[in-house]
Amino acid sequence: MEKQPVWTTPVRRNWGELLNLQNLLIVALVITLSLTTLVPLCLLFSKAFFNAKAEFIGIQNFIKYFTTPSLAQSLWNTVWVSLLSTGIAVTLAFLYAYGISRTAIRGKAYLHYVAMLPLFEPTMMHGIALTYLFGNQGILTSGLFGLLPSGISIQIYGPVGIVISEVIYLFPQAFLIFITALSITDQRLYEAAETLGASKVRTFLSVTLPSVKYGLISAIFVCFTACFTDFGAPQAIGGKFNVLATDIYKQVIGQQNMSMGATVGILLTIPAIIAFAVDRMVERKQRSMLSSKSTPYRVAAGKTRDTLYQLFGIIISTAILIPLLTIACASLIKVWPYNLSFSFKHYDFSHVAGSGLDPFWTSLQVSLLTAIAGTFITFLFAYLIEKSRHLSGLRQIGYFLSVLPLALPGMVIGLAYIFFFNNPNNPFNWIYGTMIILVLANITHFYGVPFITATTALKKLDKEFELVSESMRVPFYKTLLKVTVPMCLPAIIEIAMYLFVNSMVTVSAVVFLRSADLNLAAVALVNMEDAGDVAAAAAMAVLIVITNIIVRLLYTLLSGKVRKKTEAWQIRK
Predict the structure, then answer these.
(1) What does DSSP say about strands 339-342 and 333-335: parallel, antiparallel, or unpaired?
(2) Contact at 8 Å (CB) between 411 and 268?
(3) Are 524 and 355 in contact (CB under 8 A)?
(4) Which residues cross the membrane (predicted)?
(5) I need a labelling partner for 518 at 20 to 30 A (CA). Which of 57, 165, 286, 417 fits?
(6) What does the pLDDT look like over 517-547, one tens digit per residue?
(7) How close are the terminal C-alpha atoms of the chain, in Å?
(8) pLDDT tens digits, 323-379
(9) What interhelical angle do 123-134 and 159-182 show, nearest 10?
(10) Beta bridge partners of 342
(11) What residues form DSSP beta bridges with 50?
(12) How far apart are CA 65 and CA 135, in angstroms?
C-alpha cells in the first residue's frame, strides 16, 4: 500500500518570539545610534545647502568657500601640513617600533611607555610647550637663558610649530600600529631569505616591508585623518596660519555663520571617510596574513645595529619627554623668564580665564560618566550585534552605525549636535547646555574604537554559550552577566580607561557644546591660551596629564589581576 505524503506546515515565528527583550533591545540600539549619529550628521550636511535665512541655495556655500582666497588657502594648508606631519610621524614611529621589536636594545619597556605619553596629553599642550622652548623668550631661543653662546631660532608660530606638534600627537598612534604589525611576522620567511643568500637590505625590502604593508597603509591613513581634523595644535601655535579645523571654530564661534561652518564640516569629513574606508579594507586583509604554522620572529645578533637603534630610541624618547617636562617646569615658575623661582601660584586658577578649578572637576565628572555609561552602552550594543541570531538586517545597520563615528571628526560631531539638540522642536532639546550632552558627545565621538574592542573580545568566545543557554531557556541577560561579562572583563576595563583618558584630553567634540558655567579642562586651555594666561594653561595641562597617568596605572594594576582570574579556567592543573 502506497504511503501518503505527510504535509508539514512551516514553522513561523510568533509575535511573542519576535517581540522578546533581546529583539526589542536591537531595535532600541538602531534607534539610539540613529538619533545620536546619523540624524544629526544628515541635518548638519543639509545646513550647508541653506543660507542664514533657511533658504535653499544649492552649492553656493561651497562656491563661496573655494572662491574666497583665504578660505581656499586653509584647505591647501590643511592638506600639505597633514601630508608632511604624517610622513615624518610614520617614518619615526616605524623605526622606533622596529628598534623595540626587531633588535636587542635595552630598556624596551621604558621606550614603549614613553612612546605612549602623548596619548595622555591634550594636543594644545604640545603647542604651548613649543612656545616655551622656541618662542621669543624660549629656553632654546635664549640659549638656555644665556648659558650658551647662541640660541636656536625657529619661526615656531605657523606651519613649523603645527607640524612639530602634530608629529608628537601622531607618533604614538602610528607606533601602536607598527608594534603590532611587526610582532606578527613569520620567522620562516627570514630563514628562507637567509638560505637563498639574500642580503640584509634585500631581506628588508622583500620580506619585512611586505609583511607590514597593511599596517603601514593603515598607519598612514590613521595619522593623516587625525592630523587633518585636529584643532588643538593649530589653535595653540598656528598663529595666522589657518586650517580647516580653526576655520570651523572661527565661522561658528567668531562669526556665528552656521551654514559656512557646516560647509567646512563636510570638507573636513570627506578625507576622513575615505581614510576610514581604506583602513577597513586594509584591516580585513591583515587578518589572513598568519597561518597556524607560522613561527615567531627571533632577533639576530647585530651589535652595530643595536647601538644605532639604542641611540635613536634615546633621542626620540627624549624628544617626547622634553615638551612634557617643559610644561611641568613652566607651571611652577613664577614669572617666565624674569623670575625663575618655583611657586604653585599658577595652580590657583581663580584669577584667570579658566574660571578656577571648576573646569577640571567638571572634566573629571564628565570623563567618569563617559567611561561608565559609554562602557555599558558599547559592550551591550556589541553583544547584541555579535551574539544575537535574529534580526540580521537590523544588526547589520547597527554595525554600520557603530563604526561610522570612526570616520567623523570631533568638531563635526559637536557642530551636528548644535543643529540637532539646539532645536526647540526637538523633544531632547532639554539636554542642550547640560552635562548630559557633553557625555553623549564624548561617547559618540569615541564609540567606534571601544565597539571594535568589544566585538573582538566577543568573537573569541564560543557561540556554544549562547546556543546552550537558549536551548535550556536561560534568559540571554543571565548568560551575559554570568558568563560573557566575566570572561570579557579585561576588554571592558580597557574600554573604560580609553573613554576616560580621551574624554579628559578632547577639545574638538565639546568646544561648541559646553555652556558658560559648564567648562571643561581641555577647553579651558583654549580660553587661557587665548587670554594670554599661558602659565596657568600649562598648570591645567599638568593636572590633566597626571590624572590620565594615574588612571592608566590603575588600569594596568587592575587589568593584570583580572586577566589572571579570567584566564585561570584555561589552565590545566
Answers:
(1) antiparallel
(2) yes
(3) yes
(4) 21-46, 79-98, 110-134, 154-179, 214-237, 257-278, 308-333, 364-385, 397-420, 432-458, 534-555
(5) 165
(6) 788 888 888 888 777 788 888 888 999 999 9
(7) 63
(8) 999 999 888 888 777 777 888 888 887 777 656 788 889 999 999 999 999 999 999
(9) 130
(10) 333
(11) 56
(12) 33
| Angstrom distance (rounded) from CA 410 to CA 522 | 14
Q: What is the CA radius of gyration of the chain?
A: 26
Residue in this structure with the C-alpha cell 549562547, named with its chain if needed:
466
Could you tell me which of 24, 23, 28 has the C-alpha nearest to residue 389? 23
Grid cell for residue 450: 571601544
Cell of 220: 598612514
Which residues share a beta bridge with 302?
A: none
Dihedral sign, Cα of residue 374, residue 376, residue 379, residue 384: negative
What does residue 238 show for φ and ψ, rounded to 5 degrees? -75, -25
**Can you list the pairs that 428-432 forms with residues at least 24 positions away whose Cβ atoms lie under 8 Å?**
428/35, 432/513
**Residue 44 buriedness (CB in 10 A; 0-12 / 13-18 / 19+):** buried
DSSP state of 152: -
| Single-letter residue type at 497 | M
Amino acid 19: pLDDT: 54
Give me the phi and psi of 113, to 5 degrees please.
-70, -40
Counting Cβ atoms within 10 Å, is residue 368 exposed (0-12), middle (13-18) or buried (19+)? middle
Asked whether the predicted pLDDT for residue 88 surpasses 80, the reply is yes
DSSP string, 381-435: HHHHHHH--S-HHHHHHHHHHHHGGGGS-HHHHHHHHHHHHT-TTSTTGGGTTSH
**Among 285, 459, 470, 468, residue whose Cα is nearest residue 385:** 459
The pLDDT mean for the chain works out to 80
> Which is nearest to 337 in space by CA: 142, 540, 125?
142
Task: Count the helices and strands in the chain (H runs, E runs).
Answer: 28, 2
